[in-house]
């Protein structure tokens, strides 16, 4: 990339940022340019820290190009592949930028990749190279023996050393370990790559590697390898990792959500991790950008401090600041100034003006390495959150009490935690890997009929789609939230701005939202996924099943195997019947341009476009071959429905490419041919196997498919039609999962009699032990929940709390269990309180849906809102916040039991959340906050908040200049 092209990319990338993000980019750039080698961006969750990193890459790359560098290397370190996949494409500032594979992040193997890429003209052409690493596979090498490719590469290098030439067979067997299957193939593959790389570098690769390996190989290590001692593998992995690091030479290191691998900044210099990180964080000349909304534990209760035996907040704060100010003199200066502030803060009875001056001095010093922007700049009173439902306690039934009594009576030796029973119905069905369950299994109790009824799912009721007895008040509240608006009849979230009045099952579904549920227990996401999906099927498929006269049909527990009966109802869109949904037509795409007809009724739209369809009738019939028995008038009406809402036609308008449109429409047709979708359509329009496609088209028209798809495309904001199509198709490919569930018979001994419950309406996102396939399923789930299609409910644990976004179609969040720490509440809600989130879009829809639109509805809506914001307001408005909170808000739902301590805990969390910022960086925060509560009013305390916002400070400087 030429210097001119890179300068233009910098201009474009910065222009795409919001004003407060640009201010942070400029501040970080100035700090790096003036010698500060480590900078922390700690913007509040959801404000686009990754985009700030993107802007900084553009500026620094341009700077390095101007100084004559021929390649700008960015090392991107994050905690797992899911976050890497989500963010790495955002950091790619141009199509020519090289992005290394997320799955190939093992540090001990990077040396081969570095030499392979060293003379690659395509990489040089792109100038910027992004290299993702994950700490678990890159920096933790002493435990485990690595994977088969890693050990095969070690063999492909060591076999060239004279010391091992007579020991190749033993070396091969030793490095194989337990990976007997496929290891020979991996050795062949790595030998091929090593040989090719060596040839392409004229022998430089092996010459350099063998020289560095010999330097690191002691006689003792050679002997332990020959003797096949297991611990020598980790030493070899560490050796090759050190070789890789010595050759990485990054220009910029980005540590994203680094609090999840903080050992990289705190490791002792002589530890394994310390040896590795010291090489590129301390010895190299690379700038280091840390990204984290929670760089240290933002708030610690006295209970947490007592439990851990250490003031984690204060310790972690000092560790981070020590890392940022790596110069001994700078660090000592910061410590002295911060200590003065800490002492003064505990003496608020003294001169308040003096305290403010001391606070300002501490703030200025911290601003030398830390930037943080928060929504408080606009939304200081939390007007964007609606918690009115929280004050309504749950309705407890006899079955709730019976569940606890029966669970408590099973094991006299062990009491059941009451939170288990409050959190999950049918405990012994949904528990997995819990000691309580394994203990009960071990003692083999006799279960009474009542115990079976409340502790296990009733298989017989499932078979006939019968209601399961309600025995958990929290689940009943979630059922009300999830199904209260008839969500079982919807296959996608209705668009925020429909192009015409929604009809049928979509009528009256304004401001609909998916629901994100957070729980402290892993059994809860499994339970919610199964129970809500079953309830959805019961309300739809169950109704069709009840009408069927053929009693040979299987019910809910039908097997999906090809050798057994298929699920009911069976596919309808077969034998070419799907063509009106999946085949695009430029004629139909051009006949109806949605923005030109906004505000008109369906009848008015059809009256206008039908004459045009008549003109092209023969051409359309040649393409689609619709049966003529219905008569020409009915066929024209079908073509009108296709022009307005056929998935293929709508997709063609979005992608501008027939192949892409057909690919996406095929996925939509597959969705419509699943039993749960067939039931929805047939309940709405009746059964018609031959003309089922017509009913599907009616459903798409009634549901404003075009408006839904346009809004989805706007959110994804991908300029590449192919990439946009792939993302949409991936969302639809998130296949139905199923969970193995214990019933009474399987629990007492016959494991084969476990049943499988499907999840599709709701899904569970939680930590599981698994392989790459499991990790991919989590990524698919995140993609699906961020799409307008099902699942409509996602239940998760703390794994969903950091680093991932779920905001595109969810503005309702349910805290199944209240967290102990108020910051966790903030972190959870940050998953849906993000850029252009659903609540923002629905609020703007209320304000601007009746305006005149020219071309792109959503671009123009946000432009209208931007023009209406205040002069000195940051561009948090209107993309993250609205001045009055907006007409539609994020709904916080806390299902509280009556007479419990939940309400007092909740009020305490809110009080601390509003003012905890004054105690950042202070020891024993809770004590200090109590002292300040007793000695200062809330408005006075806010004056003591540390302001690290570059945008806010730039405004203050402007005001001072005017004065």
UniProtKB/TrEMBL annotation:
InterPro entries: Helicase/UvrB_N, Helicase_ATP-bd, Helicase_C-like, P-loop_NTPase. Pfam families: Helicase_C (PF00271), ResIII (PF04851). GO terms for molecular function: ATP binding; DNA binding; hydrolase activity. This is Helicase C-terminal domain-containing protein. Residues 688-877 form the Helicase C-terminal domain.
């Amino acid at each position: 990339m030429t210097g001119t092209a890179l300068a233009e990319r910098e201009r474009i990338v910065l222009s795409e940022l919001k004003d407060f993000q640009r201010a942070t980019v400029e501040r970080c750039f100035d700090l790096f340019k003036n010698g500060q080698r480590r900078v922390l961006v700690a913007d509040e969750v959801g404000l686009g820290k990754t985009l700030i990193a993107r802007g900084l890459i553009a500026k620094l790359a341009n700077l390095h190009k101007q100084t004559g560098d021929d390649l700008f290397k960015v090392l991107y370190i994050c905690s797992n592949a899911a976050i890497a996949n989500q963010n790495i494409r955002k950091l790619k500032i141009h199509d020519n930028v090289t992005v290394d594979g997320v799955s190939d992040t093992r540090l001990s193997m990077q040396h081969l990749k570095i030499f392979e890429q060293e003379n690659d003209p395509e990489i040089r052409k792109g100038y910027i190279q992004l290299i993702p690493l994950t700490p678990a596979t890159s920096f933790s090498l002493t435990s485990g023996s690595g994977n088969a490719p890693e050990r095969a590469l070690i063999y492909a290098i060591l076999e060239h050393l004279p010391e091992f030439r007579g020991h190749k067979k033993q070396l091969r067997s030793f490095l194989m370990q337990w990976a007997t299957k496929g290891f020979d193939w991996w050795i062949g593959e790595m030998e091929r790559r090593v040989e090719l790389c060596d040839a392409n570098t004229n022998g430089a690769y092996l010459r350099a590697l063998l020289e560095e390996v010999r330097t690191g190989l002691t006689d003792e290590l050679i002997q332990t390898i020959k003797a096949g001692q297991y611990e020598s593998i980790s030493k070899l992995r560490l050796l090759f990792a050190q070789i890789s690091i010595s050759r990485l030479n990054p220009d910029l290191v980005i540590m994203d959500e680094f609090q999840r691998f903080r050992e990289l900044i705190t490791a002792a210099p002589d530890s394994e991790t310390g040896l590795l990180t010291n090489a590129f964080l301390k010895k190299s000349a690379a700038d280091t950008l840390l990204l984290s909304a929670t760089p240290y534990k933002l708030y610690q209760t006295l209970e947490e401090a007592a439990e851990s035996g250490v003031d984690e907040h204060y310790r972690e704060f000092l560790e981070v600041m020590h890392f940022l100010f790596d110069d001994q003199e700078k660090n000592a200066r910061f410590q002295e100034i911060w200590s003065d502030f800490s002492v003064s803060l505990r003496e608020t009875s003294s001169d308040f003006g003096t305290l403010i001056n001391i606070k300002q001095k501490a703030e200025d010093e911290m601003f030398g390495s830390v930037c943080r922007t928060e929504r408080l700049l606009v939304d200081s009173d939390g007007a964007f959150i609606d918690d009115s439902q929280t004050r309504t306690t749950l309705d407890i039934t006899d079955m709730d009490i019976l569940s606890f009594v029966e669970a408590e009576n099973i094991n006299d030796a062990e009491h059941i935690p009451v939170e288990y029973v409050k959190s999950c119905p049918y405990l012994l069905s949904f528990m997995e890997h819990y000691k309580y369950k394994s203990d009960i299994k071990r003692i083999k109790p006799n279960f009474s009929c009542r115990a079976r009824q409340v502790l296990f799912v009733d298989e017989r009721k499932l078979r006939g789609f019968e209601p399961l007895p309600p025995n958990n008040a929290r689940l009943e509240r979630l059922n009300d939230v999830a199904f209260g608006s008839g969500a079982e009849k919807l296959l996608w979230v209705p668009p925020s701005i429909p192009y015409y009045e929604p009809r049928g099952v979509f009528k009256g579904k304004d401001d609909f939202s998916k629901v994100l549920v957070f729980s402290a227990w892993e059994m809860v996401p499994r339970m919610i996924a199964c129970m809500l999906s079953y309830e959805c099927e019961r309300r739809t498929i169950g109704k069709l099943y009840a009408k069927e006269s053929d009693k040979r049909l299987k019910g809910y527990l039908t097997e999906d195997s090809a050798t057994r009966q298929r699920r009911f109802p069976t596919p309808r869109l077969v034998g070419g019947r799907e063509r009106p949904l999946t085949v695009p037509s430029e004629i139909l795409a051009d006949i109806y341009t949605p923005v030109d007809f906004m505000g008109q009724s369906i009848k008015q739209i059809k009256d206008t476009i039908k004459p045009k369809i008549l003109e092209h009738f023969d051409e359309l019939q040649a393409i689609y071959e619709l049966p003529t028995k219905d008569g020409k008038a009915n066929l024209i009406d079908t073509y009108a429905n296709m022009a307005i809402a056929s998935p293929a036609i709508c997709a063609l308008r979005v992608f501008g490419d027939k192949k892409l449109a057909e690919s996406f429409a095929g996925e939509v047709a597959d969705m419509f041919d699943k039993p749960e979708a067939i039931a929805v359509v047939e309940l709405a329009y009746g059964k018609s196997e031959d003309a089922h496609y017509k009913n599907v088209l009616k459903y798409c028209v009634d549901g404003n498919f075009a408006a839904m798809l346009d809004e989805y495309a706007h959110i994804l904001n991908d300029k590449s039609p192919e990439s946009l199509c792939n993302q949409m198709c991936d969302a639809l490919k998130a296949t139905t999962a199923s969970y193995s569930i214990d019933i009474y018979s399987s629990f007492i001994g016959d494991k084969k009699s476990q049943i499988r419950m499907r999840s599709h309406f709701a899904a569970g996102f939680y930590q599981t032990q698994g392989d790459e396939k499991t990790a991919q399923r989590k990524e698919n789930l995140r993609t699906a929940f961020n799409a307008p299609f099902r699942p409509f409910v996602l239940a998760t644990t703390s794994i969903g709390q950091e680093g991932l976004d779920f905001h595109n179609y969810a503005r309702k969040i349910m805290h199944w269990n209240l967290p102990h720490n108020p910051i966790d509440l903030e972190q959870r809600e940050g998953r849906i309180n993000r850029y252009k989130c659903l609540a923002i879009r629905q609020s703007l829809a209320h304000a601007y849906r009746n305006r005149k639109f020219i071309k792109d509805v959503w671009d123009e809506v946000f432009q209208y809102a931007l023009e209406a914001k205040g002069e000195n307001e940051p561009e948090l408005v209107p993309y993250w916040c609205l001045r009055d909170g907006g007409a539609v808000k994020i709904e916080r739902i806390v299902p509280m039991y009556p007479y419990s301590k939940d309400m007092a805990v909740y009020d305490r969390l809110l009080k601390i959340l509003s003012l905890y910022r004054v105690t950042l960086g202070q020891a024993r925060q809770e004590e200090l906050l109590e002292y300040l509560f007793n000695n200062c009013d809330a408005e006075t305390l806010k004056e003591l908040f540390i302001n690290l916002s570059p945008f806010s400070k730039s405004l203050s400087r402007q005001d001072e200049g005017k004065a």
